């Protein structure tokens, strides 16, 4: 059998599939050319259909909206003159016709570009542009229409708010928390805004939970972490799990959210001259602050003329020591201190009126030093950094509030006077948007009301005031997340100001809860129930006579509290005897004996008066030899003189 040549094979392939081969393989389609699919064409076709469908839905929606607008305009214009209503209808019809024509034009113009457009349908403004320009510039999903107009409206709203920042102050509503009767000298709010802590001159620290409180506004916990020292500062850590407590003692404490002590700073040695060589503060503290970024690091300032940084993990020694100095190099006491927003700077205000700012890692020389920020001899009560970190506000004891730019720390940007303060911890703070500065004023008792004063940061104008109460405003705190203002007053109140529309959570959670009613079982006292016909096991025992019961209790050594008899001898069983065998114990025993005489001392002396007169043995003989001789003779009678005349005189007579 001969094999076919190459010409024969090519000829059979060109003529078509071999029918015998198809029968042999078992299906008829064997040998045919495979069908090829153009994927790009298929995707184009699906995209065209999607574009057409989306365009149709958009046109239908636009027509429905136009019809609804026309109906609303007709209803509104029914009460107006017919001419004006006709004019409005004509305008609306013209608008609709123009839109129809523009849509028809866009359909005609985009008819050629339907084959090339890909993605969602174009907005109205984009449809008016030529199709070639759309193909070249637009990639990906197209932006929704009318974005520019919305952004313009938002910009207008922002400009209006910028023009009047007073509208952002949340002061439409307030609640009052009763801390006590003395000054609320410390406020602290955790970063989430769920819990508030207050401290005062009554040594108490109280915890308030906004989510757990009802309309009675009662604290869920009260404690005295520093015993008999006034609370000067309270602050939550940046994680919200610890609270820094600064009191009038020399040792700061850190407690957890439930009030349990976590650590206590060590006390230093006051006999060391260089305060950098001792491990802790040696005098009364003023205030403290947590590091805004590093967990577990905080700072305190004290009357020992130092600012010290600490770590919670190492309470036995401070981390670093900053020593404020005057321009002559003498010690000066810092009255307040704080961290910058990024934690790289430490600012302290001192009693000589200066403000000194250090780099956190450079403890020797301050980075900025302004020596006459406030009047010397006054206690600057607060320094606070703005949220952008460029501006520093200082509340002075000279009744002023000043604003400083730390980039040009040579003079204050603004200064406001006439803000009386009588407390060493009067606060100042910035609003969450950095456009306002808030501080409180102090008043004498019965001489007006304390105020919360708001200053605009750009112009430093006094733009707003809130009358708080008939006492001084000591502490103020504006929480950025809650947008609520907490105020501590001199009469033991802590007030929370909020706005239902501008504020979040916080006081809004507890205001809506009704006050819980006291249970009836708790109010009624338990009375005896007389059941004369009850079973013996439920019958109360009959009251016996009191004398017999006392006699019975007297025999019981536990009820009678009978003391143990003294031990005779030197002692046994770990107990010391009445007197041991030593001389010292015998002398102590004899000294302790009561040998006092309760009789009248005058009678006791006069009892021996007669015996002393009859027998002057104890007094007169003792002075007989030492008594001087009398210089003058005693006057005697004539008979006695005659008797005493000498014999020679008598003979002469």
UniProtKB/TrEMBL annotation:
Transmembrane segments: none annotated. Residues 1-27, 45-172, 539-579, 630-653 are annotated as: Disordered. Gene3D superfamilies: YVTN repeat-like/Quinoprotein amine dehydrogenase. Keywords: Acetylation, Isopeptide bond, Phosphoprotein, Repeat, Ubl conjugation, WD repeat. WD repeats lie at residues 177-209, 278-320, 383-407. Residues 105-117, 148-164 have a biased composition (Acidic residues). Residues 570-579 have a biased composition (Gly residues). Pfam families: WD40. Residues 45-78, 89-98, 126-136, 539-564, 643-653 have a biased composition (Basic and acidic residues). Belongs to the WD repeat GAD-1 family. This is WD repeat-containing protein 70. It comes from Canis lupus familiaris (Dog).
